[in-house]
Design brief:
The chain is an alpha/beta fold and 269 residues long. 29% of the residues lie in helices and 19% in strands. It has 9 helices and 8 strands. β2, α4 and β3 (94-98) form a beta-alpha-beta unit. It is globular and about 55 Å long. It comes from Arthrobacter gallicola. Keywords: Methyltransferase, Transferase. This is Class I SAM-dependent methyltransferase.
Amino acid sequence: MVQNPVKPVGNMTRGTTNPNRLRRVDRWLSGPEAWRLRRAADPLVIDLGYGAAPTTAVELHHRMGSVRRDVSVVGIEIDPDRVLAAKPLERSGLSFRQGGFELPVDGRRPVMVRAFNVLRQYGEDEYAAHWDMVRSRLAAGGIFVDGTCDEIGRRSTWVVLDPSGPVSLSISLRFGAFERPSDVAERLPKALIHRNVPGERIHVFLRAMDKAWLDAAPMASYGTRQRWIAMCRTLRSQGWPLLTGPSRWRLGEITVAWSAVAPSLGRCR
């Protein structure tokens, strides 16, 4: 058995894992966010709560290795049996440890922590404390990515936090896997999934996406990608603080400043 001498913080996840399930967020980490890894004094990246199989951690190591060859990816799981099963896959730059949100990496500070389909199992009164714990352990310029996706990664969303707090929300959809952008609502991160109700900013944003999508219907004759880009241009023209441009939009992705979608009821971050 692989044991952590410090009791891990958190609960064991259901553990569902599929190959390429997290390709959308990995593409983002190794794309517009890759500068963080390139500049890091310690190129440490963590896959937190990788699940019943270490697939996502292995894929993360491969993808981030294309950014920096000396990257160090650590897969962290609260279940010691899952860690034991992953150990044979360890190699230079890839290792597995038992742990939770306390991030048992011997005092090292990661530049990226990715936790997908982990925090959605917690209550609304619990996730913020885990956000704070992980943020307190980030390197300067580091980020914590708290996300959710469907079983095969066609619909994904993620919140990005830096040491000071939440920064942005990204929505990434496979073309053909939705009728309206708001179909992604059931895959919102824990901080937002119960906030998609009238009076909340995320509800207003998703409704604005739907309207811009419907208004862009004439662009469908040029393909779904062009329709999505037209939707994003409309949202930007309406004043929504989009943080990326056409190079990301064309992938079915949109990123908006957290201030535009943050919860307005209860505990606001």
